[in-house]
Amino acid sequence: MSVRTVAIDSLGAKGDGIATSPDGPLFVPFSLPGETVGVAVNGAVGTLMSIAKASPERQEPPCRHFGPDGVNGTCGGCTLQHAADPLYHMFKRQLVIDALASKGIQTEVAPLIPAAPGERRRVVLTARRTEKALLLGYNQMSSHHLVHIEECPIASPGIVGRLDAIRRIALALASNAEPFRITVLEVESGLDLSVDGVAKLDNPRRRRAVEAVLALRGISRLSVGGEVIVEPIKPIVRFGTVPVTPPPGSFTQATRKAEAAMAELVLDALGKAKRVADLFSGSGTFALRIAARARVHAVESDEKALKALDAAARSTQGLKPVTVERRDLFRRPLMTSELKPFDALVFDPPRAGAEAQMAELARSSVKTVVAVSCNPLTLARDLALLIAGGYRLKSVTPIDQFLWSAHVEAVAVLEK
Ligand SMILES: C[S@@+](CC[C@H](N)C(=O)[O-])C[C@H]1O[C@@H](n2cnc3c(N)ncnc32)[C@H](O)[C@@H]1O
How many angstroms separate the alpha carbon of residue 301 from the centre of ligand 1? Predict the structure, then answer.
């Protein structure tokens, strides 16, 4: 390992500063373009040691656990708290522009819809019992070291205010020093906790966990490995006006604000469409909103998510007909002939995108297509396939849902 002084030229796709060196790019986490920094070099990565010249766009990180000097080590939950908003917003929008350009798509990209602190209603924490305490937090960047957190400025006050309660429940569940995951979702009646990776529950630990939940206020449900252990109050989230009980640990958009922004873009684009397909529908984030005005066919591989969607649609008055189909859209995309009945289609795939589905959709006559994506690279690939099939890209809007990370969502609208 050598120590060097380097000049940072740009930000990489993961939010690291990049210095050009004779040996190729050097990635320096927590540095910014225009800075001169001292780094300990190990291969292509430089560990920030000192800042000789700081960027005017450097800001004081809001969280004490952030950065190379975090009090308990660097929490890996955030990577960009040191970048002031104008630079940070430009970085996120540029991720989408660059991804599209890499597939030859030159288009106007709308301004970023920003995120703010305290908005995350869903976080995934790691817990681990030590001899002295129960640690609860996030893993250190690129490591299994767990950083115990006392605060988390990205998470909602409803989550941060109950970190102690989550610790008590985790302590009741822990049987050894192995780390386990707790997916925390803030629902209308408190927190929905879904635990994975904990050793099989014996009766004493199960009883202690139930007692801990019942003794605490504001825990709506506790599940372990998908099994509901105790549910003092049925967890409810609302997609538009439709109440839904999501399956334990299932996909839910991480902030209400980003979800509402995406849904508004989707509904605007659908206009007066009468028959809509919602692919990768989850528990109905878009389908149940669309059903207020159009018939919807929701397709998804997760059976429990589809059941939640179906139950919500059946028990809500005034919706247009909603049909559901369990299907692996990577292996069995909807064929061009099956797409015929629809005048509009929404797809919101996982990070891998929806390449197999694009081949069929590109050949279809569906008039309006809305792509919702959490990965600009696969979005660009999928859009390029649709454009090659005769679709015209009308708009692309980047949305920040994961504050101070290098993740960005986008909604793209196409027409044929
Ligand atoms: C990004 S989430 C979007 C869910 C929903 N649209 C929402 O906003 O809540 C992607 C969804 O795709 C589903 N999925 C993943 N792989 C799939 C596949 N091969 N076929 C169908 N659905 C899949 C996941 O279960 C998940 O619900």
Answer: 7
The answer to whether residues 126 and 149 belong to one domain is yes
Percentage of the residues of the chain whose pLDDT score is greater than 90: 90
What lines the ligand 1 site, CB under 6 Å? 251, 253, 280-282, 285-286, 300-302, 305, 328-330, 348-350, 374
Please identify every residue annotated as catalytic.
374
- Tell me the pLDDT tens digit for each residue of 341-377: 999 999 999 999 999 999 999 999 999 999 999 999 9
- Looking up residue 367, the CATH number of its domain turns out to be 3.40.50.150
CA of 133 to the centre of ligand 1 (A): 37
**Tokens 């950065």, residue?**
67
Would strands 295-300 and 322-326 be described as parallel, antiparallel, or unpaired?
parallel
Binding-site annotation: residue ranges for S-adenosyl-L-methionine = 253, 280, 300, 348
Whether 307 and 230 map to the same domain: the answer is no
Q: Tell me how far the alpha carbon of residue 251 lies from the centroid of ligand 1, in angstroms.
A: 8
pTM, two decimal places: 0.96
Residue 309 domain flag: yes
Pair 202, 328 in one domain: no
Atom of ligand 1 nearest to the CA of 278: 6
State the chain's mean pLDDT as an integer: 95
Q: Which structural domain, as residue segments, surrounds residue 107? A: 91-115+255-415
Atom of ligand 1 nearest to the CA of 349: 10
Contact (Cβ atoms closer than 8 angstroms) between residue 125 and residue 138: yes
Q: Are residues 203 and 128 in the same domain?
A: yes
How far is residue 89's CA from residue 400's CA, in Å, rounded to a whole number?
Answer: 9
Tally of structural domains, the chain:
3
